[in-house]
Q: What sequence folds into this?
């Protein structure tokens, strides 16, 4: 088996104080990368970085705020070096049926899940272009492919992220910047832990592998896309859902 070695690479992972983001950051660090742990709570971000040890730094950032994004990236690059790998993982939900969705619910989700990726990508891509090397990996969702009742705002943000991924991939492929997306299915996180038992059982019946995913399952896909094994892959959406959508 080929072991992926990301030694010397610098990764910036948004929303990485818990859940999928934490799993991704941990895997990147284990593969040898220097990792910026990024979250709105700087105390949590620094605690995660401290737990990882050397080659990790915690920075505070609300990705929906362009000024905070620029400051966080500057701080990460000062501590670790130029960013080679950007993982846009930060996101949130404000679920409700369309007629009950408020404008605030819509804007909050779109700002965090879609505008945040716009801010971070714009902030790092210029340096990647100059170095003619870079990986941008956007964590979307199968909901962005299939839609879901009660999640019009979330599904729109994740579908938008897929379109964003493909467009940016086309813009910067000639400069050595590869841009891809990962669409996880239902992953074991704080959100899925809150599912009632009957809802969980019904959900599992629709998954070919018969289990929810783990953060490590998504992390493995990130590691692949960040590595030289994916040197000829760009503009793609890799579905990691255990066979839920086939």
A:
């Amino acid at each position: 088996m080929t072991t992926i070695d990301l030694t010397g690479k610098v990764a910036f992972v948004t929303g990485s104080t818990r859940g999928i983001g934490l799993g991704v950051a941990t895997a990147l660090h284990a593969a040898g990368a220097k990792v910026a742990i990024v979250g709105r709570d700087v105390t949590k971000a620094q605690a995660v970085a401290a737990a990882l040890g050397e080659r990790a730094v915690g920075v505070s950032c609300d990705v929906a705020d362009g000024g905070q994004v620029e400051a966080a990236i500057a701080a990460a690059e000062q501590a670790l070096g130029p960013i080679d790998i950007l993982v846009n993982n930060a996101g949130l939900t404000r679920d409700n049926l369309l007629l009950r969705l408020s404008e605030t619910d819509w804007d909050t989700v779109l700002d965090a899940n879609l505008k945040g990726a716009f801010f971070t990508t714009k902030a790092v891509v210029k340096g990647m272009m100059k170095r003619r090397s870079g990986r941008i990996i956007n964590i979307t969702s199968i909901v962005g492919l299939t839609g879901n009742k009660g999640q019009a705002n979330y599904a729109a943000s994740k579908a938008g992220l897929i379109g964003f991924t493909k467009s940016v991939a086309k813009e910067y492929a000639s400069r050595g910047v590869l841009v891809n997306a990962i669409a996880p299915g239902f992953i074991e996180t704080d959100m899925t832990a809150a599912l009632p038992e009957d809802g969980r059982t019904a959900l599992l019946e629709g998954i070919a592998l018969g289990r929810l995913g783990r953060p490590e399952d998504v992390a493995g896909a990130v590691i692949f896309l960040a590595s030289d094994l994916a040197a000829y892959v760009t503009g793609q959406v890799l579905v990691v859902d255990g066979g839920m959508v086939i």
Observations:
- The longest strand covers residues 177-184.
